[in-house]
Amino acid sequence: MQIEDIEFSKDYIRSVEARMQAEVAVQQRQQELAQESIKAEIAVTQATGRANSIRAEAQAQADATTLRGNAEASAIKAKGDALAANPNLVALIQAERWNGVLPTTLVPGSTVPFLNVH
Q1: Where are the alpha helices (DSSP H) in the chain?
Q2: Dihedral, CA of residue 80, residue 85, residue 87 and residue 90, to nearest 10
Q3: Domain interval for residue 67
Q4: Does pTM surpass 0.85?
Q5: CA 114 to CA 87: how far, in whole Å?
């Protein structure tokens, strides 16, 4: 038995076409939803990366400030210890930094700066 030239009613054909169009529309919506989900994940990843970068930069700046402060405190302590051990160190530093020029005017009865004659 061989069947040829089968014709369906126009209503049946329209219902099949409508169902196929509905399925295609659903698939398009699912694809759009997947694309939006991927875009959202990308945006979250980028925002997280920017936040981590800003956080790391702020931490590096804080660490650098702490290191500079600790170095300065150590230098101040070392100078204080050196002055305590040798009170004549101030006079030595003044003598080393002096350019050798005496003041051209002096207040009457005052001593010449930097010169302690004993």
Answers
A1: 10-85, 89-97
A2: -50
A3: 10-97
A4: no
A5: 15
